[in-house]
Amino acid sequence: MIGDPATVDTFLARHAPDVEEAVRKAAATEIMPRFRQLAAHEVQQKSAPHDLVTDADRKAELYLTEALPALLPGSVVVGEEAVHANPASYEAIRGDAPVWIVDPVDGTRQFVHGSTGFCTLVALARHGVVHASWTYAPALDRLAVAVRGQGALLDGEPLRAGSPEPGRDLEVATSHPDYTTEEQKRALLGLRTDGVAPRPCGSAGLEYLNIARGELDATAFTWEAAWDHAAGLLLVEEAGGTHLTRAGEPFGITGGNALPFTAARDAATARRVVDLLADGTRSGRAAPGIS
């Protein structure tokens, strides 16, 4: 049956290159022709000033929504733009069928502003377990692939997150204040301490890639949307890193996580970030915007 994990593994062994081709074609057909070419009417605001959507997002997601289930009959797609239109469609992540989790343009704000710091994210999951992921930065033509239990590659070369250099400040990418509650802001204040250098995050997918490459030490994120996290968390895991919520548990793509959560290059760094987030919550200080 299609829901059998062995079927998913067999599919990946045979068809992972076909998924890569679909991701590349979606970008080549629908994203890159619009890069630095967007007209005003092709950009809209969703729920917040920094939450944008473009024709590239919508059309690339439609492309992948057709292409990916054709490769794995019986699978379904959960895409950011489809869920925005119909929130109930997110529930497919908790269903029995294999699910493709798609963020067609992760880093839409950067894309709109003409920066190369955006990517397309695709993950294949079943029952909350991510089996494979593809992180493609089309403006840079860089592709990272992770398969559970088989490691992570960037342009065909192995990725290893390693550990932070002793004595150096930890670089931690944090959520934008628009996407944080007052309690979460207080938690993030715990990172304002000696030995830690917090900064605002860019594209979540590329920040996860930075961790997998050993170029960023950790994240501290405050939202759960699976399309932002599923691909990158597997990439970090397969590069030797880890992730933890404030409850000290791995982040789950099906939701219900204690936020903020962290992904980090190693277990010690993840634990340190979680402890600092707890310190921030306990401090009782006022919670200004984190910038």
Automatic annotation (TrEMBL):
The catalytic activity, as recorded, is: a myo-inositol phosphate + H2O = myo-inositol + phosphate
Cofactors, names only: Mg(2+)
| Pfam families, sorted | Inositol_P (PF00459)
Highest taxon listed in the record's lineage: Bacteria
Recorded hits in InterPro entries, A to Z, give:
Inositol_monoP_metal-BS, Inositol_monophosphatase-like, Inositol_monophosphatase_CS
Q: Does the keyword Magnesium apply?
A: yes
Asked whether the UniProt record includes Metal-binding among its keywords, one would answer yes
Keywords from the named record: Hydrolase, Magnesium, Metal-binding
- Gene3D superfamilies on file: 3.40.190.80, Fructose-1,6-Bisphosphatase, subunit A, domain 1
Give the Enzyme Commission number: 3.1.3.25
As one GO molecular function, the record gives:
inositol monophosphate 1-phosphatase activity
Annotated residues for binding of Mg(2+): E80, D103, D106, D228
Q: Name one GO biological process term.
A: signal transduction
- Identify this protein by name: inositol-phosphate phosphatase
Name its species. Streptomyces ruber
- Higher taxonomy: Bacteria, Bacillati, Actinomycetota, Actinomycetes, Kitasatosporales
